[in-house]
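Page 47, continued from p. 46.
Same chain as before, 342 aa.
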Amino acid sequence: MPDFYKLAQKVLFSLEPETAHHLTLSGANFANQLGLLSLLCGKAPQSPPVEVMGLQFPNRIGLAAGMDKSGRAVAAFGTLGFGHVEIGTITPRAQAGNEQPRLFRLLEHQAIINRMGFNNPGMETVLGNLEKSRQGFKGIVGINIGKNFDTPNENALDDYLTCFRQAYAAADYIAINLSSPNTKGLRDLQAADTTRELINALQDERTKLAPAHKDRMVPIAIKIAPDLSDEHIDDLAAVFSETQIDGVIATNTTIDRQAVAGHPLAEEGGGLSGRPVTQRSTEVIRQLCKNLDSSIPIIGVGGIFTAEDARDKLDAGASLVQIYTGLIYQGPALIHEIIKLH
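Result:
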């Protein structure tokens, strides 16, 4: 597997990043349909299942949102070994996202900068894709939702409720993205009062929806940024504990450029992911745990490149971990290494 991915990576890294991204998804889907993906990447190790948010996860490793924005390759990622796949971010209406180029590799730092801007085909199309692409996948599917770029913040709740209603039947859990730096004003929704209002509204909507779905209460998780102060994290932890949110995803990409200062691409706008966010995301998890109700699980994400990185996040308080940039730089072998942690 490492030799195969090293060769594939050489080809993919010779291409423009967004082209490589789409080629990877199409190639993984095609190889999976032919039964070749498991032969090329090897069979994933077995792991005891873990219960988180009331759901049975086959293992602790998941794919972070952003890789499969359209829900087209869920089963393929399952073949690679992921116990859960989070698709999106998805908005009510289709949107093209920001102008290209909007995705950049910082090879020396094992990092990526993206300012994609929630490019996606809209919830209705994604749900059609998901119905096909999850066939054969025995893991958990999360649907990550956001607001359209032209929806003002005072109307953001309408977008989240629209997506929530549409995603409810298909999602094992629903993740609320308040922390992408690539939609203007979105991070303002992380203010404690605004977050509380949003959570309460979604929980009320879930109570209304559940009877029509065999009383199934779909878990709700909130994804937060790594750039919050300790005080802000403490305030959010209090809100999460008060509202008894089902889970917290920590963290999204960072706008901090200190770790890549001097790089020719350092000043490109967007969120920075990969190695530069490894330590900070773990610090946020640890800080969150100080005041968060211990019954509320955390999904740790940000700069996981080794099994040891994953272990650090689990030791800091995470119940599950997710990868994205680490997968691009390290390949599918990383998934197997993390599964072996149990």
